[in-house]
Amino acid sequence: MTLLALGINHKTAPVSLRERIVFSPDKLGVALDSLLQQPLVQGGVVLSTCNRTELYLSVEEQENQREQLIRWLCEYHQLRPEEVNDSLYWHQDNAAVSHLMRVASGLDSLVLGEPQILGQVKKAFAESQRGRSLSSELERLFQKSFTVAKRVRTETDIGASAVSVAFAACTLARQIFESLADVTVLLVGAGETIELVARYLREHKVRKMVIANRTRERAQALAEEVGAEVITLAELDEQLVQADIVISSTASTLPIIGKGMMERTLKARRNQPMLMVDIAVPRDIEPEVGKLPNVYLYSVDDLHAIIQHNLAQRKAAAVQAESIVQQESSDFMAWLRAQSAVETIRDYRAQADELRAEMTAKALAAIQQGGNVETVIQELTHRLTNRLIHAPTKSLQQAARDGDQHRLQILRDSLGLD
User: Fold this and answer.
1) HEC readout, 312-343
2) Of the ranges 7-11, 158-162, 277-281, 315-319, which one carries the lowest mean pLDDT score?
3) CATH code for 2-159?
4) Which SUPFAM superfamilies does the protein's record reference (predicted)?
5) Is 59 helix (H, G, I), strand (E, B) or coil?
6) In the beta sheet, which residues pair with residue 3?
7) Is 50 a catalytic residue?
8) Can you give the pTM of this predicted structure?
9) CATH superfamily of 165-307
10) Which of 7, 39, 133, 237, CA to CA, is 20 to 30 A from 125?
11) From CA 312, how far away is CA 291, in angstroms rounded?
């Protein structure tokens, strides 16, 4: 059994490729079932966020396993291998273990130490368990990663400052507008990222906030918390005219705001400038919108510079966190290696128990036939001892004859002679 991690992220692939390899939530179950039908796959978890798509797998060791898995990924998303090969990374065993621990701890995120990814990893793990069975090794790995992430969060200052994609979006807005108290912000979507954005905006006393979502019900609770209005996506065209800032993050597979819609909006606004931040993958706003005059469009990749500015205070904490991950991944691999001895230990115990039962039955039979109890017991212990030490004795003798001092020492350690 081998543990693997295969994927792309914000470091290896632009958003234009990442959005083509996203596993949408409504189709994730189908994707998992398809993945688990691959002959070499024993268990799998699919993690798909705006910044990464990763497969965590336990597989049977095969020579062409990498080619098989990349072929499945490309066929599922209707891509050619040459389109993704340069962006894919591949981690095996210890490297896969430490990678997942780093991901869960926020050490591999666009925003160093951001806490959202842990919830996304937990959600991916829960989805993989729904109606399916994971290998014990893969299940243990994810549970261990959750523990490591909690330890990193409590033992270091990695999460001491509020830095995230949502925070970066709000920072960008504050850099462009002197005061948010004079602007109207339109938030598109009502997911976790938009929730964070809304809370940051409320802290900076934005003049007016409107949340546009497919259904009013999902957005209503958030709107009440932050003092925002709620509209449906059908009302988006009309509301865009009033918006100075648009921040969008939905799970839509197609753009929600197109070039034609924005041309009408700008005309109605008399070309007043607009800041638009698209933090969705796939993108919510057509890239062509950014070419329109008086529209300043930023994607998740554009936020990278802002995020880098806020990372200085987390660098020292990250060093400590990396040390924790290294220690915990080593401990996990030691446990994993120990599992390979479980079957051998089970066989050895069964052999010894079978011998004990055989010798006990003979001794009881001898006593029942009138044999002297003391003599029978002494003979039992003598024969049992000889049978138990026969194989180790032969191994010790062979090691000595071969002059193999290393093997001889291992045998002595195994027998507790030191």
Assistant:
1) HHHHHHHHHHHHHHHHHHHHHHHHHHHHCCHH
2) 158-162
3) 3.30.460.30
4) Glutamyl tRNA-reductase catalytic, N-terminal domain, Glutamyl tRNA-reductase dimerization domain, NAD(P)-binding Rossmann-fold domains
5) strand
6) 58
7) yes
8) 0.63
9) NAD(P)-binding Rossmann-like Domain (3.40.50.720)
10) 39
11) 33
CA distance 315 to 327: 19
Sheet holding 89-92, edge to edge: 41-48, 52-59, 2-9, 89-92
Residues ≥6 apart with Cβ < 8 Å to 388? 352, 355
- Helix ranges (H only) for 234-372 are 236-240, 259-268, 304-309, 315-339, 342-368
Q: Is 191 marked within a binding site? A: yes
Residues of the chain with CATH 3.30.460.30: 2-159
Over residues 268-296, the pLDDT tens digits come to: 999 899 999 999 989 999 999 999 999 99
Angle among Cα 149, 153, 159 to the nearest 5 degrees reads 120
Say if strands 208-213 and 245-248 run parallel, antiparallel, or are unpaired: unpaired
Q: Please check if 193 is assigned to a binding site.
A: yes
pLDDT value of position 162: 54
CA-angle at 101, arms to 95 and 105, nearest 5°: 145
For residue 115, say whether it is annotated as part of any ligand binding site.
yes
pLDDT of residue 32: 92
Query: Residue 224: CB partners within 8 Å, gap ≥ 6?
Result: none
- For 355-382, write each residue's pLDDT tens digit: 899 889 988 998 999 889 999 899 889 9
User: Is 253 within any annotated ligand binding site?
Assistant: no
Cα–Cα separations (whole angstroms), residue 130 to 32, 34, 61, 134, 154: 10, 14, 26, 10, 30
The SS3 assignment for 208 reads strand
pLDDT surpassing 90 at residue 228: yes
* Token pair 């002679």 in the structure block, residue: 417
Domain(s) labelled CATH 3.40.50.720 in the chain stretch across 165-307
Rounded to whole angstroms, the Cα distance separating 56 from 43 reads: 8
Provide CB contacts within 8 A for 308, sequence distance 6+. none
The residue from 50, 124, 165, 243 that is catalytic is 50
116 is in an annotated binding site: yes
In DSSP notation, 152-196 reads HHHHSSTTSS--SHHHHHHHHHHHHSS-GGG-EEEEE--SHHHHH
Query: Is pLDDT at 12 greater than 90 in this prediction?
Result: yes
